[in-house]
Amino acid sequence: MKPLGFPKSHRLLKPSDYSRVFNDVQLKVPHRNFLILATPNHQGCARIGLIFSKKNLRLAVQRNRIKRQIRESFRQQDHWPAVDIVVLGRQGLDKLDNAAVRLALDDMWRRLKKKHQQSCSSSSNDKVRGSG
Fold first, then answer.
1. 83 CB neighbour count, 10 Å cutoff
2. What is the pTM of this model?
3. Name one Pfam family in it (predicted).
């Protein structure tokens, strides 16, 4: 059974961690209510950071509900590649119920993993072509 914790090693903690993702975005997964930015890391595990403004989610209870949903969805995913992920909230997010948020996140995680696999396979193909 998978452990139920969410340790600090799986979170982006410092501003420099966030800046590294923003300055070197290699994977982008857009959605009507979210935007996921990601870049590979050398930590050996996926890490996540969350950014939600008061402009998009007025009440703290709304921001906290969405953050809980994202952390739980992230934690339950299997086989994460070693990437740093930043999830940004967009307008209209406060109108979604928990089930809709979960469906959107599951789809976005799937798309992120697919894009990561494609980028890894294309970079390995470039290395093979370039070495000859």
1. 20
2. 0.86
3. Ribonuclease_P
Taking only the tens place, the pLDDT of each residue in 23-68 is: 999 999 999 999 999 999 988 889 999 999 999 899 999 999 999 9
Edge-to-edge strands, sheet with 47-51: 27-30, 34-40, 83-89, 47-51
Cα separation, 16 vs 107, whole angstroms: 28
% of the chain with per-residue pLDDT over 90: 69
Q: How many domains does the chain have?
A: 1
Q: Which residue has the tokens 């086989």?
A: 79
Dihedral class, residue 35 (left if φ above 0, else alpha if ψ from -120 to 50, else beta): beta
Tokens of 60: 């703290």
